[in-house]
Amino acid sequence: MLPVGALVWVSIRPLLRLVICATTGFLITKADIFPQVAARGAGQIMLNITIPSLMFSKIVPAFTPQNIGALGPLILVAALYQMLGIASAWIVKQFFWVPHRFRYGILVAGGWGNWGDVPTAVIMSITGSAPFNGSTDQSLSVAYISAFILVFFVSLFPMGGHRLVALDYVGPEVEDDDIRMPVKAKALGTIHTWIGVARSVYTVLANKPPKPLRDPEVPPITAKSMEENRGIAKEDVADVSLRHRPEIGSKHVSFYVEDSTAIQTEIISSGVGSPAPTEALHSMSRVTSASPTAAQIDSTIEILRVPQRAGQSVIASSKSRGFLRGTINQLHTLVKSLITPPAIAIISAIIIAIVQPLKALFVSIPTVYIPNAPDGQPPLAFILDSATFIGNASVPLGLICLGSAMARLKVPWNQWSRLPVGAIAWLAISKMIVIPVIGVLICQGLVNAGVIDREDKVLRFVCIFFSCVPTATTQVFLTQVYSGTGSAEHLSAFLIPQYAIMFISMTTLTAFTLRLLF
Fold this sequence. Notes:
With 518 residues, the protein is mainly alpha-helical. The chain is 64% helix and 0% strand. The protein has helices at residues 4-30, 36-62, 71-95, 105-111, 117-127, 134-156, 163-167, 176-179, 183-205, 223-243, 277-283, 308-337, 341-354, 356-359, 381-391, 394-408, 421-448, 457-465, 474-483, 489-517. It starts with a helix and ends with a helix. The chain crosses the membrane at residues 15-33, 70-92, 104-126, 138-157, 334-355, 423-446, 458-478, 498-517. Its main location: membrane.
């Protein structure tokens, strides 16, 4: 077990390197040396070249048929963290006011964390030295990180997470004063809503049918009252047929059914009619009007109805076609998102790592014989070397872009009283303090349940560490695109406190996890 001093230093050293690298991006942006066009180009290089190269160079040698089963727990933990983040953001939204143009963006800020440059930089630094097993554990940790990155991309784009950001800018502008309400009143409203939901759930679980809503002055309907109403209806119909006998020269409108067999006809009746409309139909064979109407009607008019089966079949077929079209569109979006360079690199690397003859083309495997290149290396080892060389630029470039993005965030500090301070503070506390505590409990529970291998310390460290990451800066670019103005003023106020707390909470969590594992 490491001494306390060494444990603290091992935990804080990667963050110091992160701060130094991100600060360089911040400074060159403030000095106008790194304009927005250059930062956007660097981001494209990082996303489409360096990150895929880093993932490929680490996944191929790290994954084996023995440890590939770790992908299941990794994807499960990633999904749980996203659901926890969205739930915490929704709770914050219920108790604190949020700007109208950030009403859905807060859910994205809670659910999608920075699963790219920040955790990769810190985890690679920690697993590359004691108490871990050097480069072997470092490559394995990056391979495990790739599962989180894959979940991030799939959930944000194919599954439509980015559309939540777009929904913020749908509809007219609403002033903050119009949506701001007292916290106490909003909290009480939320509590009453939850109580109603709890009562509904209890009613369903207890198999108690809900009480029907009716006027207390109206007596309940019984079998006896139905028989009495049926008799009254017959008498009323008889009186109508006696009073309205056809007279000479009068125009009449007929509602009776002639000898028609091709199309079913029915009488138009009131919504509060007799329970037995067939009896009224026979009694009400012909009803006439004593005086001519404004439009002279000389012929018999029959009210026809299209058979219900034909209408239902048309509706069902249109629904099925709509469902099929929507499914095809979703599959097209999914396939389109999976042909991006990061997804291609991760999926192809996993396939190569599992299929041993393919893996032997890149790395040496004692159980598989492949003729080597003239230098004694596997024939495609140069591809892996190139990917490693390019991938080494991924983390520094990503941190420089992170510092540049933070330098461009504009927070209206002079209007601090008009900012949603409660939502900003509690979202930062939930993401950087509450969720990490829950994440440790979840991971320990999965270890005790046998889902996570107790002896795989790299897997346990990666799973716990990803519970303590701030909101992804990718949301900044999405907000700038969907806003139409290129601004992200609401998001910036939520990001800065999270990254400020990150240095304390991440150091504490890292030290606690290392002490838990070793």
